[in-house]
Amino acid sequence: MSFTAEVKDELARVSGAGRASEAAELSALVRVCGTLSFHGSGSYAVRVTTETGAVARTVISLSHQVFDLDTQLTVRRSVLHKTRNYLIEVPEQEGLERALVAMRILVPGKGLVTGIPPELVATEQDRSAFLRGAFMAGGFIADPRGDFHLEMAVTSEALAQGLVALCHDVGVSARLNRRRGAFAIYIKSFDDIERLLLVMGASKTAKAVRAVRQVKSVKNDVNRSVNAEMANARRASGAAAEQLALIDRVEAGPGLDSLPATVRQFCELRREHPDLSLTDLGRVAYPPLSKSAVYHRLLRLQKAAEDWEARRA
Prior knowledge:
Blueprint: H1 3-12, H2 19-33, E1 34-38, E2 44-50, H3 53-67, E3 72-77, E4 84-90, H4 96-102, E5 106-107, E6 111-112, H5 124-138, E7 139-141, E8 150-154, H6 157-169, E9 175-179, E10 182-187, H7 190-200, H8 203-252, H9 261-272, H10 278-284, H11 291-312
Antiparallel strand pairs: 1-2, 2-4, 3-4, 5-6, 7-8, 8-10, 9-10
Helix pairs in contact: 1-3, 2-3, 2-5, 7-8, 8-11, 10-11
């Protein structure tokens, strides 16, 4: 089972918070992955198609419990992709028009609703339910151990904009992308995805996401520390190589015996410990020296080399 399927399976087990919230959830499910057929005045039929068994069960359960609607389920299997496809049909029947009106999908005498009516998501529970239904119908969430992101795909721009606004209402930052005639509500941040999962009711998944994030954070801290140490080591190694070359120049010129005793001590330490930084070089000196004292001796060595080369010029 994919990570997305696991999340949808958890969401399918979330208990509704009353008839209004259940109607909001079913409304989102129908609007995102369903189609409405019109057969004349007051005659409608609904078809919902999904590849997720949990979504099919939820559509059927809510249709029966909330609106007492008859449904027909057909399970089809793709020979090419070896996957199941679920078709839920809500045929023309008494009560379907009232249900469509109650779900704010249809306005009598005016046609279909485009955005998300405020009265459908009036409470916190209603907003959570609508987002849950929209994600179950058209959502995808990547495995948090990889390139983590969450998205919901819809075909209506007004519905997509409404979902983005609804995400913002519950404290989740989302953006809208247009993709080949459809619209994707896209969320990248770990914090925002965890927040949305909690809002929708997927507390188990949110906990797992938090754990993966903590592991990633530790790994990132370790990697940054290792990279910084390696960079420091490369810089120290490069500086040490330059200092050794400087010592060789002085030795080939005026000679190391021409240097003050403290500077000669620096040259001996550097040759004995070619991989140490100036700070560590001071620690192995006897008596120990501060980084400033070691650096001062390096400057005197550089001055001796420059003076010798100036006299030769």
